[in-house]
């Protein structure tokens, strides 16, 4: 068997194909925070013998959901002296030009967790100022007191000479072996300091989440008897090993959605439709992508949470060109300070899930609204639905 699984915010899906070309598909509930359990559940539910799996491919929305819902690690930044506020300054070309109360994106790493290091490398890689290890030592001591879990390292022009970042990572690991450390040179070696800093900051932010999740999944697969090769879908439509994905999880940020876009393009070729809009609504996010003349567009100018009014956060990694918003079937409805109805970006996920699931959810979601509106039928749920509880939550 060649098996592919995908973890969404609410459900975990499986598709498998055997040597004879026979297809098998199954669905199970996602099981946060132990997402790997959902994968094992869906394999068991499908009836596939784990020892028969020769190749295992995995797509996941765990990384993008951690970013969208701000559920990553407490992250710090080490950067070149004078560049502490790069994340704050961002870019001046605001998307909503005539909005006089426009607010820049709030950095994932707050200012008090950003520390400067005396060092400087020229555009051609020549060392202008040697690396000051005392600055690093003081910063690490401060980060320990603040209970930081992950550290991003991004020095200016290090794509031309990566020595200072390598030395910094080595020294930080010597001072604090247990902390996650992420140098920018492991992710991107291109100019533009804001985009590079944003990318490494986001990567460090989700590293602990990704590492824990992938380690647990790898262990459970081995425990079940899976001996085949294991790969994770990347944002560019290719695959990578489990080990590499732990170091550069930002390359897996659109792991789940891109597979759907490529699937749509292949389906388009089968039915003779080269121009397609691929639209994918999950439990937490909704995604959309354009397939033009049969080609899936890959971009390195990718942003999360960017729209006509918000600048979003840049990620300098090859990603299938997808527009994404934090609004899915599990998105929670809420009333803002002026009394307007809002939906998302927070999601009920699979646990506690929508009120209809009866797993302890009390905040109404899109799924609950569709149930009351008659778009969904209670008899089609795989659990007992308490419609009265749903009505009560919506009324409140």
What does this structure look like?
The N and C termini lie far apart (49 Å). The model has no long low-confidence stretch (mean pLDDT 92). Helix content is 31%, strand content 25%. The chain has helices at 35-46, 62-68, 86-89, 133-145, 163-175, 193-224, 242-247, 255-271, 366-373, 387-395, and strands spanning 2-7, 11-17, 23-29, 55-60, 75-80, 114-117, 120-121, 127-129, 150-154, 180-183, 229-233, 239-241, 276-281, 286-292, 295-296, 298-299, 302-304, 313-315, 319-320, 323-325, 331-335, 341-347.
Topology:
Elements: E1 2-7, E2 11-17, E3 23-29, H1 35-46, E4 55-60, H2 62-68, E5 75-80, H3 86-89, E6 114-117, E7 120-121, E8 127-129, H4 133-145, E9 150-154, H5 163-175, E10 180-183, H6 193-224, E11 229-233, E12 239-241, H7 242-247, H8 255-271, E13 276-281, E14 286-292, E15 295-296, E16 298-299, E17 302-304, E18 313-315, E19 319-320, E20 323-325, E21 331-335, E22 341-347, H9 366-373, H10 387-395
Parallel strand pairs: 1-4, 4-11, 5-6, 5-9, 9-10
Antiparallel strand pairs: 1-2, 2-3, 7-8, 11-12, 13-14, 14-15, 14-20, 16-19, 17-18, 21-22
Helix pairs in contact: 1-6, 2-6, 4-5, 9-10
């Amino acid at each position: 068997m060649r098996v592919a699984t995908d973890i969404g915010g609410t459900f975990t899906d499986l598709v498998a194909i055997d040597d004879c070309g026979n297809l098998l598909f199954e669905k199970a509930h996602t099981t946060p925070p132990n997402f790997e359990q959902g994968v094992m559940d869906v394999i068991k539910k499908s009836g596939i013998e784990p020892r028969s799996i020769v190749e295992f491919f995995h797509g996941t929305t765990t990384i993008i959901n951690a970013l969208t819902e701000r559920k990553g690690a407490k992250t710090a930044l080490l950067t070149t002296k004078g560049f502490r506020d790069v994340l704050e300054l961002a870019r001046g070309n605001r998307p909503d030009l005539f909005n006089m109360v426009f607010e820049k994106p709030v950095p994932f790493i707050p200012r008090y967790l950003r520390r400067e290091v005396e060092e400087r490398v020229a555009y051609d890689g020549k060392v202008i100022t040697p690396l000051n290890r005392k600055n690093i030592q003081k910063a690490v001591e401060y980060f320990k007191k603040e209970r930081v879990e992950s550290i991003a390292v991004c020095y200016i022009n290090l794509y031309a000479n990566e020595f200072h970042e390598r030395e910094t990572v080595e020294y930080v690991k010597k001072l604090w072996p247990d902390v996650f450390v992420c140098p920018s040179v492991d992710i991107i070696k291109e100019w533009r300091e804001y985009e590079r800093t944003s990318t490494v900051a986001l990567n460090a932010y989700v590293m602990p989440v990704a590492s824990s999740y992938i380690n647990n999944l790898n262990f459970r697969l081995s425990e079940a008897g899976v001996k085949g090769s294991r790969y994770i879908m990347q944002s560019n439509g290719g695959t990578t090993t489990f080990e590499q994905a732990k170091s550069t999880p930002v390359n897996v940020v659109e792991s789940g959605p891109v597979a759907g876009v490529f699937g749509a393009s292949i389906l388009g070729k089968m039915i003779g439709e080269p121009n397609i809009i691929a639209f994918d609504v999950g439990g937490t996010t909704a995604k959309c992508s354009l397939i033009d003349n049969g080609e899936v567009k890959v971009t390195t100018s990718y942003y999360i949470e960017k729209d006509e009014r918000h600048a979003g956060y840049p990620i300098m990694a090859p990603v299938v060109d997808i527009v994404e918003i934090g609004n899915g079937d599990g998105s929670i409805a809420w009333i803002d300070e002026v009394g307007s109805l809002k939906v998302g970006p927070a999601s009920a996920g699979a646990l506690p899930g929508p009120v209809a699931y009866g797993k302890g959810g009390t905040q109404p979601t899109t799924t609950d609204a569709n149930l009351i509106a008659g778009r969904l039928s209670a008899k089609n749920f795989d659990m007992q639905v308490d419609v009265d509880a749903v009505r009560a939550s919506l009324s409140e």
